Amino acid sequence: MVLMEKISERERKVLIDLAEVYGDEADCRFMKYIGERTDLEYSQVRRSVRSLARKGYAEFVRGLFNDEGMVAGSGYRATKEGALLVKACIDCKKEVSNMTDGRCMLCWEIRKCEKCGKPYDQHKLVNGYRQEFVFTEVEPVSNTKLEL
Q: Which of 55, 69, 86, 122 is the most buried (most CB within 10 A)?
C-alpha cells in the first residue's frame, strides 16, 4: 500500500468527485465538469488534479468520448489508491466501497445474518430476494474525513 500523503482541501474535493465514479464504465471526468461539481475555478481544479496525479491518486486519460459518441478530449480518473483514500470499504479497508452502506461487494455478500449467522448467499432465494436474512441497516457512510 502506498504511503498516504497529506492532501489539501481542494484536492480532497476533487478526489471525492473522481472517486465517485471509480470502477464505472465512464470513470473519467473533465476538468470543467469537476469544477462545476466542486465549486472550484478551472485553474484550481487543474492544479489539484495534477498534484493528485503526481501523488499517484489520479491519472490522466486521453481520447474520451461524450454521451453522443463524439470525441471529447482528455480528463482524469481516480486510481485505486486515490479511491481507497476517500472510499475504502468499512470492513476490509482493502477494496473500494461500491455499496450504499460503505462496504465493497465482497464484504457485502459475506456479511452474516444476525438471526442464524449464515452469509447472505446461503439463504433461500424467493422472488429474487434472500428470505429470512436479518442484518442491521446502517446509514450510508461517508468515509471522506482526511487528515489535512
A: 86
- Give, in order, the Cα–Cα distances in Å from 41 to each of 46, 47, 58, 74: 9, 10, 19, 18
CATH 3.40.366.10 at 9-86, yes or no: no
Question: Shortest CA distance to 20 belongs to which of 98, 74, 92?
Answer: 98
Q: Contacts for 65-73 with beta carbons within 8 Å, 24 or more apart?
A: 72/30, 73/30
Residue with cell 491518486: 57
Q: What does R_g of the chain's alpha carbons equal in angstroms? A: 18
Rounded Cα–Cα distance for residues 111 and 3 (Å): 29
pLDDT digits (tens), the chain, 148 positions: 344 568 899 999 999 999 888 877 777 888 888 999 999 999 999 999 999 999 999 999 888 777 788 887 888 999 989 988 888 888 888 888 877 778 888 887 777 777 777 777 777 777 776 666 666 665 555 544 444 3
Whole-prediction pTM: 0.71
| Domain map (residue ranges) of the chain | 9-86, 98-136
